[in-house]
Amino acid sequence: MRKIAVFASGEGSNFEALVKACSEGRLKAEVALMVCDRPGAPVCRRALRLGIPSITISPKTFDCKSDYERYLGDRLEELGVSLICLAGYMRIIGPELLSRFERRILNIHPSLLPSFKGANALKEAFDYGVKVFGVTVHYVDETLDGGKIIDQASLKYEGSDFEELTRKIHEIEHSLYPCAVARMLEEEKGMT
Ligand code: GRF
Question: In this predicted structure, what is the pLDDT of residue 120?
């Protein structure tokens, strides 16, 4: 059974969706660890409630980013984690983790990439007045939201309620992410 670590900085609703998909057998993997870089973030309470082990540590407690990532990489390897799923993790992954987990780090982003990269993608798309929104699951590389796309889903929305749009996008994310991870694991199995 593949072991996944989910990295999150905020609410953690996608983290919970991945945990649920594993426990329901839709995703044949185990979420072995949640990593949070923001002490006090709501995702920490979710991990407790779901009984998922977690590491919450501020990168500021390390001398540099590569020390922080080396520490995390060592913990992940100790636990036998072989896949990292970023889920609202508000940091760029550096060379240390990218090289140790090459093609084994995924991200979910609330836009139809390559449109609207960055931290405020959904709001920027909404303010721009786009009519078709979406979600992308992609591999993480050294570029911002730029790695190879695994899957996408779109949503036609012409309303003017940003909260409603956000809810709809989250619903899509919660089904797309587990499916995309499952698909990626299947494809990987097919290659071995
Ligand atoms: C999601 O919209 C995801 O696409 C983006 O950050 C948000 C995280 O939401 N990368 P949550 O913390 O999983 O609820």
Answer: 96
Look up 109 and say whether it is catalytic: yes
Q: How far apart are CA 131 and CA 2, in angstroms?
A: 38
Whole-model pTM?
A: 0.96
- Measured in Å, residue 192 CA sits from the centre of ligand 1 at 32
Nearest to 106 by CA among 14, 13, 11: 14
Q: Residue 3: in which H helix or E strand, if any?
A: strand 2-8
Binding site membership of 111 for ligand 1 (Cβ less than 6 Å): no
Helix, strand, coil proportions of the chain in percent (round to 5)?
A: 45, 20, 35
What is the CA(126)–ligand 1 centre distance, in A?
16
The tokens for 146 are: 């730029």
For the chain, 192 residues long, the average pLDDT of each consecutive 10-residue run is 97 98 97 98 98 97 98 98 97 97 97 97 98 98 93 98 98 98 89 70
- At 98 the three-state DSSP class reads helix
Structure tokens at 27: 């995703």
The answer to whether the CB of 121 is under 6 A from ligand 1 is no
Q: Is residue 192 within a helix (H) or strand (E), and if so which, with residue range?
A: none
CA 170 to CA 172: how far, in whole Å? Answer: 5
What's the 190 CA to ligand 1 centre distance in angstroms?
A: 30
What atom in ligand 1 is closest to the CA of residue 12? 12
